[in-house]
Structure formats: C-alpha cells, structure tokens
Design a protein that fits this description.
With about 190 residues, the protein is of the alpha+beta class. The chain contains six helices and six strands. It has two domains: about 100 residues, no CATH class; about 80 residues, no CATH class. The protein has a three-stranded antiparallel β-sheet. The protein binds zinc ion.
C-alpha cells in the first residue's frame, strides 16, 4: 500500500507530466515551425536576405501562450543588427513559404531535369541532393551558394537530377573512361 505522501507525490508527478506534455507540444511545434534558414525581402533595401529566427525563444514563448518571433541572425548583420526586424511579418504570415528548403523543393517541381528531362518526385536532400546547371554550362551544387543568393540562382540556373549530376560529373572528370556508343560501321570503341 502506498503511503499518503507517495500518493500525493504520484499525483503531482502525473499532473506535472500532463502540463509538460501540453506546453511541450506547443513549444515543439513552434520550434519545428521556426527553425531553418529563410529568405525574405529586406524592407529597407528591398533585396533578398537570409535570416534565422530565434527558434528556442519562439518555442519558449509558445509554451507561455503565443510564439514571439525575433531574429537570431541576418545576412545584413552585424552592420544592420539594430534594425526593426520588420521582415518578421513575412515569416509570420507564411512561415513555410520562405523556408529555403521549401523554395528549392517547389522550384524543382516546376521543371524537368536539364539532362534527362524527367520530372522531380520527392527530393531526398540528405543523400540524393539535386544539382544545378549554370548558364555557362558548369555543374554546380547548392553548397556553392549562400542562402540569400537562392532567388537569383533559381532565375539563372536549370535543375539537374541526382542521377544526371553523378553521371555528368563523372563524364566531365574522366572523359578518357567514357566511350560513346559506337557507330554501326565505325571503328571499334577504345577503352583507355
Ligand atoms: Zn536527370
């Protein structure tokens, strides 16, 4: 038989867990919603900037009732670190649309691969990252760009799927190992 003290402690622990669950869920939801880099238009110079929302602060304030948004970083900081953070209204009104990952994923869905012509299905950013074809014909990956450059890059580059990126990179780096399909009456293919 539990003693009265154990009973009280047990009930208190259960209530505590319930409260943690309720508030924790809101905090976790806010944290998930506001983490990651976003691209917004800076209201001051009307140019694309990359910003980070202070996600832990948003999570904590969400657990208190309502998420309070503030910036943790911006590509125009530290020079403009004292700005009014008016761009936050863009994130508040559509947190998902300005997330860099969302912008890129949506872009890949709008046009086919520049090499194979296939449309993009679900994109596996962790292990099968798609790439880009630059206007000068170079193959580039997203690692070559800063987040605030994303909008300009999307206008000037073409999408390349993971398979074509691999194959085309190999072909360009080792042209001596790649033999084109031989002509019917042509000379036999040479393997270097
Ligand atoms: Zn392709």
């Amino acid at each position: 038989m539990p003693t009265p003290v154990q009973l009280v402690l047990g009930v208190a622990a259960l209530v505590g867990l319930g409260v943690l669950f309720l508030y924790g869920r809101q905090a976790l939801g806010a944290w998930l919603r506001y983490r990651d880099t976003r691209v917004v238009v800076c209201p001051e110079n009307r140019e694309a900037v990359a910003v980070e929302v202070d996600a832990p602060h948003a999570a904590w304030s969400a657990s208190q009732g309502r998420p309070d948004l503030r910036l943790e970083d911006c590509t125009r900081w530290p020079e403009k670190a004292g700005c009014g953070q008016e761009c936050l209204s863009q994130i508040e009104s559509s947190p998902e649309a300005c997330r860099v990952r969302t912008i890129l994923t949506d872009w890949y869905k709008t046009q086919p691969c520049a090499f194979c012509g296939k449309t993009f299905g679900e994109i596996h950013w962790h292990d099968h990252k798609p790439a880009l074809l630059a206007p000068d014909g170079a193959l580039v990956t997203w690692g070559a760009f800063r987040p605030e450059q994303v909008i300009d890059v999307l206008e000037s580059h073409k999408p390349v799927c993971w398979d074509c990126h691999l194959a085309e990179s190999f072909r360009r780096e080792h042209p001596e190992l790649v033999t084109e399909r031989p002509e019917r009456d042509g000379p036999p293919p040479s393997m270097a």
